[in-house]
Amino acid sequence: MEHQAMSEVTFHHHIEDAEFKKRVRKTTILLSVLTVIELAIGLTIYTIHKGENPSHLLVLMFKGLVCILTLAKAYYIVSVFMHLGDEIRNMIMTIVVPLMLFIWFIAAFIIDGNSYKNLRNNYDRHFKESTMPRPHHGTEPAKPEEPKPGKQ
Amino acid sequence: MANTATAQTKWWSGGKSPFNLEYGKLMMWYFLMSDAFTFGAFLISYGTIRFSQNFWPDPNVVFNAFPGAGHTNLPLAFVSVMTFILIISSVTMVLAVHAGHNGDKNGVIKWLGWTIVGGLAFLGCQAWEWHHLITGEHIALIDGKLELIGQTTRHNPWGQLVEHNVMLDAIKNTPANVLAEIVHEQKHDSNLAELLKMPQGQLVGMLDTAEMHVREKGPVAFGGYFFGITGFHGFHVFSGVIINIIMLIMTQKNVFQNKGHYLMIEKAGLYWHFVDLVWVFVFLCFYLI
Question: By the CB < 8 Å criterion, does A4 face chain B?
Fold first, then answer.
């Protein structure tokens, strides 16, 4: 096993087969369960949208919950499947610290998009009137049937 | 276990990797970090556009088809199959890497093989989904009349639902050939060639307007972002499958056995897990919220 490529590595990660299997099984079940919960929330959002007077706050809360669950999934994939959790701390930091840029990246651009929408709604009447969702838009036609023209 | 020993080691004294990692694997990590920023930038750009709109299509309305289920409304069903395929193929990749760690050539071949199967299955699903979105036509209200359009990078048929009386007005302005296709869609036993010969007025009478859901055109950016980002992810899956196939051939030819280690499998594994990781976020941004 003494080889050029391996000699630069000081400590080799050795994991017992039994422990490895236990860990993989646990993570697989965890990821599957999180995905199923996400799907359930997705369908809940769908039924809320379909109903009369959908509560936007409730939808927003469910969407936030799905985002948190996704971050949990990402954490398990990276730390267990990609073994980042087993690397030494300095190395983990060279990956994780640059990713902090995303905090600003996401916040700044989402806020920018939102601000653009508000500006257009204030100053571009056509944009507002043509795109603003009408109240009571379910999947079923909300209005009772009008008398058909030409048949009376 | 390494952490207890790391405290005494002089990592920066030379002659060894200060990160306790082989060069290629470390560089794979940095590549993946840069790739994360590429995907992140795409998804954030999508988020910016979405936040700048008053209306955005509900993913449960757009993605509700399943192969072989016809027009049955099955929101999220197909994409959950795709998600599980990718999770399972990630698990088989972990097993392949572990087998390589133990120097178990047959184990590597077996699990890498299953990973490739999973990757190809995912690509097949994506091909079906794209095909269905592009060719499946939906009734949209455009310029006061009805048109049949698919989901492309230029058209989006998933706008707001049109009110019933507006739809009835639009039907009167709609050309006969479009009406013929809508009638044919509603009554599958009808003959399209015969319908196409009928005058417009007769077709209007044949329409089952109670069953019709007409939408306005939705935001055009939807298609560009959806096809662009899922396409870029699909391209990553595709290249991952190619890399895995190369790894499989090299394993079979004893390349890694002669080298004495299966580090290449670990690097390919990192890439493959990253593909799964990105899908988790694509799934979130396009299908769930």
Answer: no
